[in-house]
Amino acid sequence: MPKTAFPHPSLSGLAGPMASLDGLLRGWLPRQRWFAGKDRPVTDLRLLSMTELFPGCLHLLVHAGHAGGHAGHAGVPAPGGTPPPGDCYQLLLGVQEHLSPRLGKALIGRTQTGPLAGLVVYDALQDPRSAQLLLERLRHPGAAGPLRFEADPAVRIPPALPPRLMEAEQSNTSLVYGDEFILKVFRRIQPGVNPDLEVTAALARQGCHRVPAPAAWLRTTQPQGATLGVLQPFLRNASDGWTLALDALATGQDFAAQARELGRAMAEVHTALAAALPAGEPGESGRTAAAMAERLDAAAHSVPALRPYVPGLRSAFSTLVSCDAGPAAQRIHGDLHLGQVLRAGREWFVIDFEGEPSRPLAERRSPHSPVRDIAGMLRSFDYAARQRRPWRPEWARRCREAFCAGYAAGAGWDPRKKHALLRAYETDRAVYEVLYEARHRPDWLAVPMAAIERLAVRGD
Fold first, then answer.
1. Which residues contact 151 (CB under 8 A, 6 or more apart)?
2. Torsion angle, CA of 90/92/93/99, rounded to 10 degrees?
């Protein structure tokens, strides 16, 4: 570890730095897009791990505790302990005596007490110098305290690639280096291998070109093993599916041909995943239906507008026990929508295999029906169609039909013929959307609520 650059002598141990950082982080964390506890007051902050990556830059894992806790938390326990209620976050903090004006947006604050008293603290991922030094760590695999920097030896990562921070809203932080690589830094950390590393590496070994392969990655060994970041090739001149769909709507163009190609591409990815990673047993169990019903009850408790539709929605889940078993459970994307696919040239690519960050990592790494991914994409077409007024239901319907037709052509089975299965998964997705929008984007709540009414009343 490099010699400390801090004028304050005592940074040893985990309690000391929090005396300086606690107050600043309590105010800064809830304002971040990736902070999951916006609706739950932070009751305590606990430092789980701290490493000086290079002079003036600290790597921290911080546990944010919340009053009452919540199901499916992402808290990282101490070795041998039970997970505390709350979430673990990865922070890279710059600490200096003075902050350059160009880093004004990165400012967290000036410390008043503790071993860092008087120093300015900022988000180091917004600092080009820190971002370049982080890439250098990945270019030269090795260790820094509990941190492990690893890379595919077959991939050459050039030096001195200029970094830029991606501004789009997301649940993590991404840096693009010279339009050649993109580094996703996971913010909400759970113990275990993140699917965005595990799945992309498995697909690369399978020879699936639809998913950019990992070039380098960062993980920690303390307090438990966990994936912290993944570097992948950056697809130049690519457009995400959401942007392309909205452009088509704005210009009055049909999107069915692109949706059909996307369906075929997704079938290709699912086929490769089934071969690359261990699959589950055929069919749906009562446990899946019970889990869906439990999520519905929890969402209805939080969102009163959902409550009148609960009986109709519950019927979609109860049919899982007796409906057509459908395809075998397997590893899937887990959070598929138009923002998770890119079109470069004439090809569709699939990205962001992390799954839904709000769900436990063990669940995201478990086999599920591929219908779950299909339902996510069908919901995304509906979301896109509702971005313009008047609403274009026929546009969404054509896209949904085309996507399923393309998928059927590539997979050998037609999702449209698994009506009960597709309805259950689309309902489960819509329930998740209602809870998400109520918490983060209340103005969007009407979009999933329209699907809730359709699924509960008509069941189609």
1. 138, 139, 141, 157, 215, 216, 217, 231
2. -140
| Predicted structure pTM score | 0.87
What pLDDT, on a 0 to 100 scale, did the predictor assign at position 67? 72
For residue 399, pLDDT over 80 is answered with yes
Q: Is there a cis peptide before residue 393, judged by omega within 30 degrees of 0?
A: no
What is the average pLDDT value for the chain, to the nearest integer? 89
> Does 359 lie in the same domain as 273?
yes
List the domain range (segments joined by +) for residue 141: 131-233
Q: Is there a single domain that holds both residue 136 and residue 45?
A: no
Dihedral sign computed on CA atoms, order 231, 236, 240, 243: positive
pLDDT in tens, 417-436: 998 899 999 999 999 999 99
Compute φ and ψ for 386, nearest 5 degrees: -90, 5
The whole-angstrom separation of Cα 425 and Cα 210 is 24
Domain final residue, candidates 79, 97, 127: 127
449 and 318 in a common domain: yes
Per the domain annotation, does 8 fall within a domain? no
Question: Does 345 score more than 70 pLDDT?
Answer: yes
Phi then psi for residue 96, to 5 deg, are -140, 165
Catalogue the E-assigned strands of 55-192. Answer: 57-66, 86-96, 107-110, 120-123, 142-144, 147-151, 163-165, 173-177, 181-185, 188-189
